[in-house]
Write a structure and sequence with these properties.
Blueprint (H helix, E strand, L loop, with lengths): L1 H5 L5 H14 L4 E11 L4 H17 L3 E9 L9 E10 L16 E6 L8 H11 L17 H5 L7 H9 L3 E6 L4 H5 L8 E5 L8 H10 L3 H7 L4 E7 L1 H9 L5 E8 L2 E4 L1
Parallel strand pairs: 1-2, 6-9
Antiparallel strand pairs: 1-3, 4-7, 4-8, 5-7, 6-8
């Protein structure tokens, strides 16, 4: 909906690819190919071109072939100007190289890779906050040092595609589990990679939360727990690694943060 309101359509295709390939890479797999479906009531060639350009961009970022897709015009199914995007990706990994979290132990380290913002989750809450704020999407993002960035641009910043970065880290060893921080935030996504009986301690001040999240929380009067359950809070991918591997990753210049550790007990706690 925000894309329709702002006219920003070139990032949506990147988001579509990102949500597929970022999930695939959590198993240590390399994306091979992607297919999409663009459905609309009446085809607007200019808009469709921007969307598909984003899909192509996303595939290039992830070294993934765009094998093809479907463009479906379904008059009466969509309001004028609306469209719906779906897609899927297929990847490959050797059976003995699958990353499944089974070797995670207490004392392993959590490494966070920064996000570009909201990514592709939490937009129902975003729209509610936006309505409460009374601000236009064309206004500057409050509390942001870069005054040239509008609220709409910040909210629609394309999801980071982590494929090349994560596969490079994985190739050097020591990665035991990977969590893509999507819907459910830290609260739901990190624990699912752990064996039973293990949880996460997050150092909540170990990275700077981006201004867009601070604005959402302040205007929406949202509790910390709900923010962490809904948004990525500036960390889009979490790697569970051995302590030795963590030192190498942090020194390799990936822009990564040491954000926590694996503990006994289940769930996520914050320090």
């Amino acid at each position: 909906m925000l894309a329709f309101e702002t006219g920003i359509h070139d990032t949506i295709g990147i988001d579509l690819v990102a949500m597929s390939v970022n999930d695939i890479v959590t198993s240590g797999a390399k994306p091979l190919f992607f297919l999409d479906c663009y459905s609309t009531g009446r085809l607007d060639v200019d808009v469709a071109e921007k969307v598909i350009k984003g899909i192509v961009d996303g595939c290039q970022q992830s070294d993934c072939a765009l094998l093809g897709g479907e463009t479906a015009e379904m008059s009466g199914m969509y309001k004028d100007g609306e469209y719906d995007l779906t897609g899927f990706a297929v990847g490959i990994v050797k059976k003995d190289a699958v990353i499944d979290g089974k070797n995670i132990v207490e004392g392993d380290v959590l490494i966070g890779l920064p996000s570009s913002g909201v990514h592709s989750n939490g937009f129902s809450l975003v729209r509610s906050v936006l309505a409460r704020s009374g601000l236009s999407l064309n206004e500057q993002l409050p509390g942001n040092d870069d005054k040239s960035i509008t609220l709409g641009e910040a909210l629609l910043a394309p999801t980071i595609i982590y494929v090349k970065q994560v596969l490079d880290i994985v190739s050097k060893g020591g990665v035991k589990g990977i969590a893509h921080i999507t819907g459910g935030g830290f609260t739901d996504n990190i624990p699912r990679v752990f064996p039973a009986g293990l949880g996460a301690l997050i150092y909540k001040d170990s990275w700077e939360v981006p201004p867009v999240f601070r604005w959402i929380q302040e205007v929406g009067k949202i509790e910390d727990a709900e923010m962490r359950r809904t948004f990525n809070m500036g960390i889009g991918m979490v790697l569970v690694v051995s302590p030795d591997a963590s030192k190498r990753i942090l020194e390799d210049g990936h822009g990564a943060f040491l954000i926590g550790e694996v503990t006994k007990g289940e769930g996520v706690t914050y320090l």
